[in-house]
Amino acid sequence: MLRKGPEDVPGSMLVLYYAFGLLVLATFISGALAGSSDEDSTLLSFMGSLLGYVLYGIVLYATGFLRRFVPTVACIMACGSILTILMVAAFVLLNPFLGASLASVLVWLILIWSVPVKGHIIARAIGRHWYVGIAISVTIFILQYMFYLSMTGRESI
Fold it and tell me: What is the pTM of this model?
């Protein structure tokens, strides 16, 4: 049972709804606990996530695997949400002990780890080697980052 991959997740809309609920929860938690300076930042982060799911859908469509949209996006959404909650928890819990700079490094490492996780999921969904999935995931991550920067008017985070 532990050998099943993300492509074995049922293509149920209920699974997608649960994953979306987890995404909303993760966004709320990150906005509330991370001390986001403005609510626009949290909303833009949420919109950037949705942009990513649309881009993953385009990849599935372009490769002929659109029928795997629901399980693939549900997996990516759920994994990304869990890692977001982990990032916030790591920052909030470790900040008093390690300081903001070291806690931020740990958060960035978790964020960077989410890229190969999502790459693995998309690679399995389209039946390609893991490095193709990571290339797709890195590209989508960069596009999401550029979207966030362009919408906030910042040069970097």
Answer: 0.86
Q: In total, how many domains does the chain have?
A: 1
Query: Tens digit of pLDDT for each residue in 130-156?
Result: 999 999 999 999 999 999 889 887 766
Write out the DSSP string of 78-108: HHHHHHHHHHHHHHHHHHHHH-HHHHHHHHH
- The model's confidence at residue 34, banded by pLDDT at 50, 70 and 90, is low
**Amino acid (one-letter) located at 78:** A
Q: Residue 56's domain spans which residues? A: 11-152
Quick one: tokens of 95? 């900040």
